[in-house]
Design goal:
12 strands, alpha+beta, 216 residues, 5 helices, globular, Jelly Rolls
Length: 216
């Protein structure tokens, strides 16, 4: 069974995160406040709904996804008052990450410099779309779920063996007796994961028509 360590640091952080260690690297999971989910979703709708913005901030050439659209949030948005709570939340999650072993054993929080968000983009995924296994740039990477198709639950229950509909999966190492090498999760709206940029991960497709799964 994967080793799970929950952070219980109410004196330091406003949000609680769960550390999941199914293999070498740590993955932490949390919940993004709904007001921030609504903000990200509203801005994503603006980007995805505009041909001009979708073209100007098209991020697909830099990514591995076989999906409908991948559009970058303009970097200028990150320094606005509107996005300040979102940036602070990400910063808090990063601090939580490095406070958990083994990260806390190799790097001290006081030596961490200013948080730099290299890039943030929205992924609009529809029936048949998928993300092959890949890694990211930077040092830490993450994903936030804005929309989950209602039809996925029924589709998931219909799969008679090894259901994977729309799941995210992380891989590290290789299969071996008494050793975990995979973490698979069925996301919900508001879920957020933070993990090393080099951790291999991918997203399975779903079949439900005319419904969008949206993430950041």
């Amino acid at each position: 069974m994967p080793k799970k360590v929950k952070t219980e640091t109410p004196a330091l952080f406003n949000h609680k995160f769960e550390a999941i260690r199914p293999f070498g690297p740590t993955v932490i999971r949390g919940k993004v406040p709904m007001d921030l989910i609504h903000l990200l979703d509203k801005k994503a709708t603006k980007l995805l709904g505009s041909k001009q913005l979708s073209k100007e901030f098209n991020h697909a050439p830099n990514l591995a996804g076989n999906v409908h659209k991948e559009v970058r949030y303009p970097s200028s948005w990150m320094s606005t008052e509107e996005f300040k709570p979102m940036v602070e939340f990400i910063g808090e999650m990063v601090k939580a990450y490095i406070s958990i072993p083994p990260a806390s054993e190799t790097i001290s929080p006081e030596f961490v410099g200013k948080l730099v968000i290299q890039s943030m983009w929205t992924v609009s995924q529809w029936a048949g779309d998928f993300n092959p296994f890949h890694i990211h740039e930077g040092q830490l990477s993450g994903v936030i779920y804005l929309r989950i198709p209602p039809g996925l639950k029924e589709e998931y229950e219909k799969e008679d063996h090894y259901p994977t509909v729309g799941d995210i999966v992380f891989y590290h190492g290789q299969a071996a007796t008494f050793s975990g090498h995979k973490l698979q999760y069925t996301p919900k709206v508001g879920d957020v994961f933070l993990f090393p940029n080099w951790l291999t991960h991918g997203v399975y497709p779903f079949r439900t028509k005319r419904q969008e799964r949206r993430s950041v």
